Amino acid sequence: MPLSAEAIQPGKCYATAGKDRYKVLHINRGIVTFVIWTGNQKPGPLRNNTGVKAFAEAVTKEIACPAEG
Predict the structure, then answer these.
(1) Neighbouring-strand partners of residue 49
(2) CA–CA separation, 7 vs 67, rounded Å?
(3) What is the pTM of this model?
(4) What is the mean pLDDT of residues 5-10?
């Protein structure tokens, strides 16, 4: 089940129904900037942007973020 747009917060991580994971870096004027990783990998260096409503519809739950370092 998708999350609400209000539930999406900077610094938190989210999962899809598949293997993709997302870490939200920041939200500015309704645009979410995030990084993606799959499985047990670390988030990649590329940043992605999308609207907060579209992001919320794509993710299914909040998850623990991977350890930094």
Answers:
(1) 33
(2) 22
(3) 0.89
(4) 95
Instruction: List beta partners, residue 28.
Output: 31
Six token digits for residue 40 = 């047990």
Contacts of 48 (CB under 8 A, 6+ apart): 33, 34, 35, 36
Rounded to whole angstroms, how far apart are CA atoms 60 and 67? 21
Token pair of 31, please? 């645009």
* 8 has pLDDT over 90: yes
Can you give 2-57 as a three-state secondary structure string? CCCHHHCCCCCEEECCCCEEEEEEEEECCEEEEEEEECCCCCCCCCEEEEHHHHHH
Residue 39 has pLDDT above 80, yes or no: no
Q: How many CA atoms lie within 13 A of 39 on its CB side?
A: 2
Residue with tokens 């907060």: 52
